[in-house]
Amino acid sequence: MIGVSTVRVESAERPAEAEEEASFSSRRPLDYVPGILLLIAVGVLGKYAQIWWNTLARHQHWTVPDIEYVLWAILIGLLITNTIGLHRVFRPGVLTYEFWLKVGIVALGSRFVLGDIAKLGGKRLTANGEALGFDPETQADYDRVVRDITKLSDQIPLDAPWTMPRAEEYDHITTDAWLTSQTRNNTVLEFLRAYVRGIFTADSYQISFLFFLFYMRSGDNYDMLFGYENAAQAWTVKETMHQVAVHIASELGNAVVLQTPVRGITQAGAAAASPTN
Question: Are residues 104 and 149 part of one domain?
Answer without folding.
Answer: no
